[in-house]
Design brief:
Blueprint (H helix, E strand, L loop, with lengths): L11 H9 L10 E2 L11 H9 L14 H15 L12 E4 L2 H12 L7 E6 L4 H9 L2 E6 L15 H6 E7 L11 H14 L2 E5 L16 H7 L8 E6 H4 L8 E5 L1 H14 L5 H11 L3 H21 L13 E5 L4 H12 L1 E2 L1 E2 L16 E5 L4 H17 L1
Parallel strand pairs: 1-10, 3-4, 3-5, 5-6, 6-7
Antiparallel strand pairs: 2-8, 7-8, 9-12, 11-12
Helix pairs in contact: 2-11, 3-11, 4-5, 4-10, 7-8, 12-14
């Protein structure tokens, strides 16, 4: 067996199940704010496109994907991030993937050169696939705390030069999971300069990029920074996008990676052996999703409604704010986050995730401790009911 498997930590939800296993919940309908699985209705026109092309199940898909999908992705990137026409070549700069999770993992196996001192830098708290991918690729994770005093973004200026020198991949997540924090454009430009200086790759996980609150101010991404710098080769820059959150299609398992053509060439080679080509019928349904923005705006409207309603209830009794983006609340607890989670489940039958389960302790400090993540993915009425129960719990404890 691969001995690196022994270094993997249990997923947060395994820890959560163990925490709640011995607890008898209150006799109330269960409300889960724990798993970040979109619950809004999937677009009907995407389902129709999928059903209309089921005959493509008889066709072996190619790893590179059909040209029409890659072209629709390029068109979307041009419209969304202001990429000038012609900068992104559909044949060289874009690769369809089966969701960002598998792509982030496989990408790390492609890029990391096994060594005793190679680092993969990650925000802390973080999406656990960054850590697992690094360990199984033979690199050591290096965690940067995301604290309130820095807007829940890492303090990149505090990273020593010797850490940057050892870095092979820098993972970004904007808006962040679980904090919802956005990485500012100037910070992205600064990180590109550091990548050039120290020869590492920036892997920007932007799967929440289409969930934001100001319709007139879409958040920038790594491609935006490349445009601002005139960086038409996207050197050392890779972005990861998905239809899961944007279009409420987590079961479609459809996304893309775009950026540096040389890195994508190597990634395509890896994926050819990995055997993870997207089915053609899924690709055709994905084209329909990438070409439509009306359903995405409607999706954002639903999240705005939920955040406004929930924060009106919770803000008077809890330290919690509207995030920059995403669908999570990163709320401060009055005491230990695991104890809060367990008691809330017992008294109100509402499930949240302890922040310490989403983070790693470094030198005796866990930046997620004392917070919980709440995913506002359920219908509005259910989220409101959860907020009322949480408020009642806080007022009587």
């Amino acid at each position: 067996m691969n001995d690196a498997l022994a270094t993997l930590q249990p997923y947060p939800f395994e820890k959560l199940r163990a925490l709640l296993a011995s607890v008898k919940p209150a006799d109330k309908p269960a409300i889960a704010l724990s798993i970040g699985e979109p619950k809004h209705r999937s677009p009907e026109f995407v389902a129709q496109a999928l059903a209309a092309n089921l005959d493509q199940m008889a066709v072996y898909p190619t790893t590179l994907g059909i040209p029409a999908l890659r072209e629709s992705i390029v068109n979307w990137c041009e419209q969304r991030f202001g990429v000038p026409a012609g900068w992104l070549d559909p044949a060289r700069h874009v690769l369809p993937v089966n969701g960002t999770r598998e792509a982030l993992f496989a990408f790390t196996q492609t890029v990391v050169q096994r060594s005793d001192n190679g680092l993969v830098i990650s925000p802390n708290p973080f999406y656990q696939i960054y850590e697992g991918a690094a360990l199984l690729a033979g690199a050591k994770p290096h965690y940067l705390p995301c604290l309130a005093e820095n807007g829940f973004n890492p303090d990149f200026d505090a990273v020593p030069a010797d850490v940057w020198k050892r870095c092979q991949i820098l993972f970004l997540c904007s808006p962040g999971n679980p904090t919802g924090a956005l990485t500012p454009l100037d910070t992205l430009k600064k990180l590109i300069a550091l990548a050039d200086e120290h020869d590492f790759v920036i892997a920007a996980d932007e799967c929440y990029s289409e969930l934001y609150f100001d319709e007139g101010l879409p958040p920038p991404g790594l491609l935006s920074a490349c445009v601002a710098l005139g960086r038409s080769d996207f050197k050392r820059c890779m972005v990861f996008h998905s239809l899961s959150k944007r279009s409420n299609l987590p079961g479609l398992r459809s996304g893309f990676v775009a950026g540096d053509a040389d890195i994508l060439k190597a990634f395509l080679l890896y994926r050819t052996y990995h055997g993870c080509a997207m089915p053609v019928q899924t690709q055709l349904a994905s084209i329909a999703a990438w070409q439509d923005e009306a359903h995405v705006r409607n999706n954002r409207d639903l999240y705005r409604e939920k955040f406004a309603a929930v924060l009106e209830i919770l803000a008077p009794v809890m330290d919690v704010q509207l995030p920059d983006g995403g669908f999570y609340l990163w709320a401060k607890t009055p005491g230990d986050d695991a104890e809060f989670t367990q008691k809330l489940f017992a008294q109100e039958h509402v499930t949240v995730v302890p922040g310490s389960y989403l983070s790693r302790e470094v030198e005796g400090f866990n930046p997620g401790a004392g917070r919980v993540r709440m995913a506002l993915v359920a219908p509005v009425a259910e989220c409101v009911e959860a907020a009322r129960r949480i408020r009642a719990f806080l007022e009587k404890n």
